[in-house]
Design brief:
The chain is of the alpha+beta class. It has helices spanning 14-19, 34-61, 71-75, 102-128, 131-134, 136-154, 158-195, 199-212, 217-227, 229-244, 248-261, 266-296, 300-313, 319-348, 352-365, 370-394, 402-417, 423-440, and strands at residues 443-448, 454-457, 461-464, 468-473, 476-483, 490-496, 504-506. Helix 11 packs antiparallel against helix 12 (266-296).
């Protein structure tokens, strides 16, 4: 069995093999070598040749009745092969199973050799992972089992060798299973030593972890960190004293130096996070105070800026958001107040359309403002009344229509029922009412004709032939038609109004056909 640094392969002293049956206390007994295996194979072939030489003639002569196995050959051991001194070749040991065939023996030998190779590979792998430093006793026990298998192999007791090798493999596999938890254990203990400032303990555990896994990054980093652990704790202590004295900016600088010295230090990171949190809290309080101070002074831009900065500093805090809400409320309330003053001004000046616009802007800011809803209703109603009054006044001729006259009277009745409709509406309503009265007051007209022409006034009546006739007509437009046999009809449009200048109207047919 091969070992890198514990049991090298060397030539075997066969005389000592015959005298020794156990393993010395240092587990350094000579293992199986290729040279011994070659000699054993040579002796086995030699013995087989003797057997063929002695028994083959009789076997050929008596094919139908093979003779029994010679007891003489069994009882006589094969002649030893002489080799040069100082190494003596011992007689091959008698196999543990007398009736085993050569094929079976070779199979057992091959199995034992395969197991031996496994033992050697596992032993070498474990030694490369520093097993002697973390499980030396268990490893030596496994080596002892392998050495026992070697002893049986040299004696060609292959079954016993196989059994010993399998036990050795089981023991080595158990050690392999311990590699991962052992590595984790020492890494954890190394980290704990770092947190406690125990440099020697940290170095011991990380070096042992590195023996198990030479490429382990945590172990490599741990060894580097152990070199600076004392300086690190000095900086942490300095930062803690500064922090206790509320010199947070200086404490932050000290913790930053500690992190630069050991970027993996959880203590330094925790201290830095703690002092940053305290500085952030102080800055947050300052920004909130500035925001509310600006809000009280109605400096809404500055207040909004302060609360936004606070929100960026502490996104999870509700206080900056509450401050921003109050700023927006104050801005909205001030805008509503300004628009209310504006709407009242327009109402006072009876500029109802503008008042409506102001109230609509108020409702956009505060949809439930009842005073704005009432203001819109009031202003829209008066704006509509004023517009209708102006329309009737601008189209006086329409008043002659009975339907229009009815509309005007209804409008004037609606205005009369209003409380404080406004000066403009009252003035226009009075003017319209007087105009309506004049429109309904008859005007005396003098119609003149030649006593030969038939005179008709549409929608008034037929007046026949006459020279002079006075009639009364209400203001408005009238169509007068004169007709006479043999003459072309005469048609005139007469507009009656209170301020008309000519009241003598001539109607006669003068153009013969």
């Amino acid at each position: 069995m091969h070992k890198n640094d514990s049991t090298p392969i060397k030539a075997i002293d066969f005389k000592s093999l015959q005298e020794k049956t156990g393993i010395d206390s240092e587990f350094e007994q000579t293992l199986v070598t290729k040279k011994l295996i070659v000699w054993l194979v040579f002796l086995f072939i030699f013995a087989s040749g003797i057997g063929v030489f002695l028994f083959l003639p009789n076997y050929v002569a008596e094919k139908q009745a093979p003779p029994p196995i010679s007891t003489e050959i069994q009882s006589q051991p094969p002649q030893p092969v002489k080799i040069p001194e100082p190494v003596k070749i011992p007689e091959p040991a008698v196999q543990e199973t007398p009736n085993i065939s050569a094929e079976e023996l070779n199979a057992l030998k091959l199995q034992a050799e395969n197991l031996l190779l496994q033992v050697i590979k596992k032993q070498e792998a474990l030694e490369s992972q520093g097993v002697k430093k973390w499980a030396n006793d268990e490893f030596l026990q496994a080596v002892s089992l392998g050495a026992t298998g070697d002893e049986h192999f040299r004696k060609q007791h292959f079954n016993e060798a196989i059994n010993a090798y399998e036990q050795a493999i089981d023991a080595l596999q158990h050690l392999e299973e311990l590699i991962a938890p052992t590595l984790a254990k020492h890494l954890q203990q190394g980290e704990l030593a770092l947190t406690q400032g125990e440099s020697d303990a940290a170095v011991y555990n990380f070096e042992l972890a590195k023996e198990i896994d030479a490429h382990n990054i945590q172990a490599q980093n741990g060894l580097k960190r152990a070199e600076t652990i004392e300086e690190l704790f000095t900086l942490l202590e300095k930062g803690g004293n500064l922090e206790a004295a509320n010199r947070l900016a200086d404490a932050k600088q000290s913790y930053q130096q500690a992190i630069s010295l050991d970027p993996l230090s959880s203590e330094a990171k925790a201290a830095m996070n703690r002092v940053i949190a305290r500085l952030k809290k102080i800055e947050l309080s300052r920004l909130l105070a500035r925001g509310y101070s600006s809000l009280e002074a109605r400096q809404y831009g500055d207040a909004r800026s302060a609360f936004i900065s606070a929100q960026k500093l502490a996104p999870s805090s509700k206080k900056p958001k509450q401050g921003l809400i109050k700023v927006e409320q104050a801005v909205r309330n001030e805008k509503i107040s300004s628009l209310t003053v504006e709407a009242n001004h327009f109402e006072s000046n009876e500029e109802w359309a503008y008042a409506v616009q102001s109230y609509q802007q108020i409702l956009a800011l505060s949809p439930n403002a009842t005073f704005a809803i009432d203001g819109i209703t009031r202003s829209q109603q008066r704006a509509s009344l004023l517009s209708r009054l102006d329309n009737y006044l601008d189209n006086k001729e329409r008043l002659t229509s009975s339907a229009v006259s009815t509309e005007v009277r209804d409008l004037l009745q609606e205005i009369a029922q209003l409380e404080n409709p406004g000066t403009k509406i009252d003035q226009r309503a009075n003017a319209l009412e007087k105009l309506l009265q004049l429109t309904n007051q008859p005007i005396s007209i003098n119609l003149q004709s030649d006593n030969q022409t038939e005179v008709v006034i549409y929608k008034v009546g037929k007046f026949g032939r006459f020279e002079n006739q006075k009639i009364e007509l209400k203001p408005g437009k009238y169509t007068i038609v004169g007709s006479r046999p043999g003459y072309r009809d005469v048609r005139k449009i007469l507009t009656i109004s209170a301020n008309m200048t000519t009241k003598n109207i001539m109607v006669r047919c003068e153009e013969p056909i």
